[in-house]
User: Fold this.
Amino acid sequence: MKFFLFSLCIVFSIVTFSQNSFSKADAKSIIDIFFEGFHQGDTLKMKSVMAEGMVMQTAFTTKDGKNQIVDEQPETFLMAIADRPETQKWEERLLDYMVQIDGNLAHVWTPYEFWFNGTFSHCGANAFTLAKTDDGWKIIHIIDSRRKNDCQK
Assistant:
């Protein structure tokens, strides 16, 4: 009987710890893989951390002051990365990582600066939603903001 209870406790502990094994460092690593692919033009690397059916959006204010939220297609975004001329350098500099995790859901907030061919273009923040899927942790939603004002260069 003692052996049975001991075995039951071990199994319960393994299940409990395996459910909480996703860490802030793991979430940061997924975002880093996404941006390594972005900077290298490696869409396969990017797709390795993107969920099927991932949602992409951008929130910004137009030149005439109207607030917009635009839906983007991940396939179109990936094609832009794949077709980027070698003479163009796109660099998104992440300034911080703020990570929150609850069970099978995580959120990563990354303020950024975007540089085009070494020249500052704009700033904003990315909000990534990650979820645990049958294929592991994946990005299920990205929304970013973009602005040219109030940026710390």
Remarks:
- The helical segments are 2-19, 24-40, 43-47, 74-82.
- The chain has one domain: 22-145.
- DSSP finds four helices and seven strands in the chain.
- The first strand starts at residue 50 and ends at 61.
